Amino acid sequence: MARYAAKLLFDWYPDPVTGNRVMRLSEERIVVFPARSPRASVERAKRLGKQAELRYDSGHRLRFVGILQLMELGVECAPGEVWWEFRRRRRAKERARTLVPAEKTLWVFTGLTSKRASQRGAGSANAGDEPSNKRIQPTARRARRG
Q1: How far apart (Å, rounded) are the C-alpha atoms in residues 102 and 98?
Q2: C-beta of residue 56 within 8 angstroms of C-beta of residue 141
Q3: What mean pLDDT is predicted for residues 49-66?
Q4: 120: alpha, beta or left, given left = phi > 0 and alpha = psi -120 to 50?
Q5: pLDDT digits (tens, 9 = 90+) for 11-26
Q6: What is the pLDDT of residue 63?
Q7: How far are the Cα atoms of 21, 22, 63, 101, 109 from residue 113, in angstroms, in the given order?
Q8: How many angstroms separate the CA atoms of 26 and 29, rounded?
Q9: The sheet that has 2-13: what strands, in order across it?
């Protein structure tokens, strides 16, 4: 079976930090899984997204929005690699100080780690999105999945 990686988009409703129902915290999550074919990988990614939805007693929900991207991890990927993207940049090596964040700002040092999944908070910098690294503090225990 081939190995696939899917970038999934999730939406917190309402925003768990601000309570806003319009400008909400979103999450992009990369998952890796085996599948028999590209079509089967789409179905598996959708199923994984739906299974990851959460609902709290407080009314906050993490909702699966959809698949942002899906790729087969072929021979070009080492066993530990889970994602890759190509992008043209002007003189990336010479501009490393402006392109690469300082180590102390990496999430592993700021408390935004996979060990604290309920406290994720990084958005993308696309138009209409507001990056956030505020910690999510659910107001009640999780009621049920789905």
Answers
A1: 9
A2: yes
A3: 96
A4: beta
A5: 999 999 999 999 999 9
A6: 97
A7: 25, 26, 20, 16, 8
A8: 10
A9: 26-35, 2-13, 61-72, 54-56, 142-145
